[in-house]
Amino acid sequence: MRSLLAFALLSLPLAALELRSPSGLLRVQVETGDHLVWSIQRGDQTVLEPSPMGVVLAGTDLGANAVLGEAKSEVLASDFPYRGNKDHVSRD
């Protein structure tokens, strides 16, 4: 199984960003404005309505006036211990 890591908040300003699962079935949309907002769709069904996203740290809302950057993707493979009929499981 391939894992797709696709998300980066960098300094290049974008108004919206769409991320898709490897199959294309799941879509995550992230938009900027006064506040960072995200939504999730599975096929034609809305899983998460547009919702504010952010972290409040020491009284500062890090989702306010956020700037999106270029999306980057990377395929990750990992091997980890497993309790069951196998000692290790590989994800690639």
Concise overview:
This protein has 92 residues and is mainly β. It is built from no helices and 10 strands.
Could you explain the architecture of this structure?
The protein has 92 residues and is mainly β. Helix content is 0%, strand content 49%. The protein contains no helices and 10 strands. The protein has a 4-stranded antiparallel beta sheet, with no helix packed on it. The chain has a two-stranded antiparallel ribbon with strand order 1-8. A hairpin with a 5-residue loop joins β2 and β3. The chain is extended. The N terminus is likely disordered.
Set out the fold topology.
Blueprint: E1 3-6, E2 16-20, E3 26-31, E4 37-42, E5 45-52, E6 56-57, E7 60-61, E8 73-76, E9 78-81, E10 88-91
Antiparallel strand pairs: 1-8, 2-3, 3-4, 4-5, 6-7, 9-10
Overview features:
disordered N terminus, 92 residues, 0% helix, 49% strand, two-stranded antiparallel sheet, mainly beta, four-stranded antiparallel β-sheet
The average pLDDT value, as a whole number, equals 77
Q: What's the overall geometry?
A: extended
Q: Which spans have pLDDT < 50 for at least 5 consecutive residues? A: 1-12
How helical, in percent, are the residues? Answer: under 10%
**Helix and strand pattern:** EEEEEEEEEE
Proportion of residues in β-strands: over 45%
